[in-house]
């Protein structure tokens, strides 16, 4: 397991149809770990206060163009799991400190260039009865 520095940029664009789209961008750098096991690459990092999930850990399992994200920790009563694969739908529960919501994800693209230090995911997420957003997650390995 190697210690690394990560830059994480998350963009969400929400458009409820009643006005202009609302874009939120969250960007932070954090320490993490990188390792490989059974043909998959794993990235682990601790969430920060900025993400609203301080005390939680995010684990990404990357194999080819498939990414499985798992968030777990003291802030979440149950683990949150999301899976990203181009053109595929994933349904699950999205756990927040404020409660759990049924979610559906449709992945537009997964650009796995971890060998160059980058992972980019473009997807739509719907939290049933609450909100639909277009999201992008860009992870850059700053130091290996």
Strand elements, count: 10
Number of domains: 1
Low-confidence parts, pLDDT < 50 over ≥5 residues? none
CATH topology: Lipocalin
- Say which CATH homologous superfamily is assigned: Calycin beta-barrel core domain
Give the count of helical stretches: 0
CATH structural class? Mainly Beta
Question: What order do the strands of the largest sheet run in, or round the barrel if closed?
Answer: 6-5-4-3-2-1-10-9-8-7
Span of the ends, CA to CA: 11 Å
CATH architecture: Beta Barrel
Helical coverage, percent range: under 10%
What form results from the Cα inertia axes?
globular
Order of helices and strands: EEEEEEEEEE
Rg result: 15 Å
Largest sheet: 10 strands, antiparallel
Task: Walk me through this protein's architecture.
By secondary structure, this protein is mostly beta strands. The chain has one domain (2-143): Beta Barrel (Lipocalin). It is 0% helix and 72% strand. The chain contains no helices and ten strands. Strands 6-5-4-3-2-1-10-9-8-7 form a ten-stranded antiparallel beta sheet, with no helix packed on it. The chain is globular.
């Amino acid at each position: 397991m190697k210690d690394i520095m990560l830059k994480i940029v998350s963009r969400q664009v929400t458009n409820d149809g009643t006005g202009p789209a609302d874009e939120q961008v969250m960007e932070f750098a954090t320490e993490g770990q990188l390792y490989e096991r059974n043909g998959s690459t794993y990235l682990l990092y601790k969430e920060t206060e900025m993400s609203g999930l301080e005390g939680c850990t995010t684990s990404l399992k990357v194999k080819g163009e498939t990414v499985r994200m798992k968030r777990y920790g003291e802030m979440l009563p149950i683990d949150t799991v999301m899976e990203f694969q181009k053109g595929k739908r994933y349904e699950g529960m999205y756990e927040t400190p404020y409660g759990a919501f049924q979610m559906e994800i449709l992945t537009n693209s997964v650009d796995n260039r971890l060998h160059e230090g980058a992972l980019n995911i473009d997807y739509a997420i719907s939290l049933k009865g609450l909100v639909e957003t277009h999201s992008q997650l860009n992870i850059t390995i700053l130091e290996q």
